[in-house]
Amino acid sequence: MKEVKLAECGLSYAVVAIMGPQSSGKSTLLNHLFGTNFRExxxxxxxxxxxxxxWMAHCVGIEPCTLVMDLEGxxxxxxxxxxxxxxxxxxxxxxxxxxxxxxxxxxxDIGREQAANKPLLKTVFxxxxxxxxxxxxxLMFVIRDKTRTPLENLEPVxxxxxxxxxxxxxxxxxxxxTPLSEFFNVQVVxxxxxxxxxxxxxxxxxxxxxxxxxxxxxxxxxxxxxxxxPASGFSFSAEQIWKVIKENKDLDLPAHKVMVATVRxxxxxxxxxxxxxxxxxxxxxxETVETKPVPGFGKKLSSILEVCLSEYDAEATYFDEGVxxxxxxxxxxxxxxxxxxxxxxxxxxxxxxxxxxFKEAFDSALNEGxxxxxxxxxxxxxxxxxxxxxxDKLRRDIDAHITAVRASKLSELTAMYEKxxxxxLCGPVEALFDGASNDTWPAIKKLLRQETEKAVxxxxxxxxxxxxxxxxxxxxxxxxxxxxxxxxxxxxxxEAGRVLMRMKDRFSTLFSHDSDSMPRVWTGKEDIRAITKxxxxxxxKLLSVMAAIRLDDHADNIESTLSLALLDPKAAAxxxxxxxxxxxxxxxxxxxxxxxxxxxxVQCKSLWRQFKIETEYTVTQAISAQLPGLLSISTKFLPTIxxxxxxxxxxxxxxxxxxxxxxxxxxxxxxxWYK
Length: 675
Hints:
Residues 10-225 form the GB1/RHD3-type G domain. The protein is α/β, with parallel strands linked by helices. It has helices at residues 26-34, 83-97, 117-128, 151-168, 180-183, 198-209, 234-246, 253-277, 280-289, 297-316, 321-367, 372-383, 388-434, 440-463, 470-497, 499-512, 528-545, 558-567, 569-575, 601-636, 638-666, 668-674; strands at residues 13-19, 54-58, 65-71, 100-106, 137-144, 184-190.
């Protein structure tokens, strides 16, 4: 457990076990499936026991952290009469600690009454009855040396056999009518022979391996498991479970879970107490307060105690809540007992200081000529050592007033600088988005950095008058920086909601005005196609700028993707033929997190479609405006065209007559044909 740092996993880990007949290839399967190194049988030396007892390994490359247990094979001859006892013990242990149990079985055993796996299944079901509150375990039946019979034909027969065995197993009254599905999730897979079809076997195992990734997530192989022991307590839990099993006692898992929590939480509490005793800051505080008062003693001591208790909370967080809280309270009491003497020293220093002031006032009264008794009585009455409740109330009132005024002033100061940032950022950011170009986001980042630095510098200077500790001050400065960034992001989201309107405005401006910003007059000489393409490209630039928040130095390919897909769809289809027919058929951009996405690819595609529809009328109107000019050009050149056409026809007629006259003289038949 230490080797794989399991304790750091919390509840994010899984345990897999395998059981089945001896020499059925269990270790071989695990080694190929999980990259482990369990000892395998040498087939050339005959069939004999290879795995003795229970062996454990860490699965290589599987997330979350997954442990696998290789159990000794059943029905072996080596153990003799002790075989059945150990078989039941190991089966119960596997069911008590595992999330997934692989049942290795031969394909030819399916449907046979005397199959090798039936005693094993009976054992599994019988020992499950010994768990007071069973885990929801996934049973994965791995059919080995699969024949040509399809899995869909084998699986119903196997499930029927499993159900019959479940029905035949004696059950306690509480579970007499409980269905198999309440205790187990049953899965069935089939693998080819490793010896005869090794390549096919390896491919099938590689496919099966993928199912063990994220096995404890909802929908995973063990997604609905119950009663998980936190990783830091797994080693102790397994040890205690095996101890109970060896003593042949029924295993009460809920009670066991509380016992594990009790032991582990106590261990954690003791570790934190020892750590507190050795804490250099505490030891220095304790040593100093013995000789003189320490400014901010309570605050410093509270901080050290809070760190210790927070560390306990972090390590004990996954254990039983009742046990965890009880042990935390005990730890807190032990810590307070430890620091009580130092606290008393501090109170003594405070009392001494007050007493010194009393002595000074008393001496002064005496020097003024008052009688000793009168002076003493007045000062003692004034000190009034018994009026501790009144003094405490006064102190609380003063503290509360100071705290309220302090909070009010800080709130006013914060609001003032937030307002300054709003005024400094909102208008300029909106203007930059209006003229969206390649320089828009760099300009916004520069503006944000300048205004934030200016505000933070002023705010920091103002906070120095409050004598705040550095952590609190840095937190307030950090929140102001976050506010500035939030202004830009909020404005970006607002502008993204108006992007269609801005695209249409930009298109209309560029389409209807020439390079000198003069309104276009459609004479018929203008290239409307080129003008339309230019205006659309500029509108697409605006869309690409508004598609994502780019306040961090991360490049993206949004503009190129949009250009390729919307301005040149044929090139996009050719480029993406091997990946996707449509690069915009997605709800996210590559390398852009969802939190920074303003417009998804699908939304951009929809907006572009709407944009083209709504700007089509403008293009059509321009084409209509060009028609009179085109007609006037045609009318002007019509006489010339007609004259050229007549000359051409006259020449063609002359040539035809010449050819026909020659033909008539040379052939009478042709003459007849001609007539």
